[in-house]
Every structure is written in structure tokens, then in C-alpha cells.
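This follows on from our talk about sequence and fold. Can you supply me with one protein entry, sequence and fold together? Could you add the entry underneath, on a fresh line?
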Amino acid sequence: MVKSPYDPSYFAERIERNLQLAEQAADPAIRSLHLEYVRLYRHLLVEQVPA
């Protein structure tokens, strides 16, 4: 089920997925991009952007 993009569980799912993708990435540049997404999603979780 697609949740509101501001639902904290959405960010938690994206963090987990990007951590998995970073672990699987053979290219350091791709790994770095996934880890940057993790950082941004964690920031949004802390900020709890209103809908």
C-alpha cells in the first residue's frame, strides 16, 4: 500500500532499501549516492515534515 510520502514509516522503508542498495553497489559513486539518500531520509525523519 502506498503511504503518504510524509509518513515516518515511508522514510524508514526508504532508508532500509537504500542501505541495502548501497551494500550491493559495486561502484563507489553509486554507493555514495545511496548513502546520501539515507542521510537525507534520516534528516526528513527527524524534521517530520508536515503534510
About this structure: The CA atoms of residues 6 and 48 lie 7 Å apart. Helices lie at 8-24, 28-47. DSSP finds two helices and no strands in the chain.
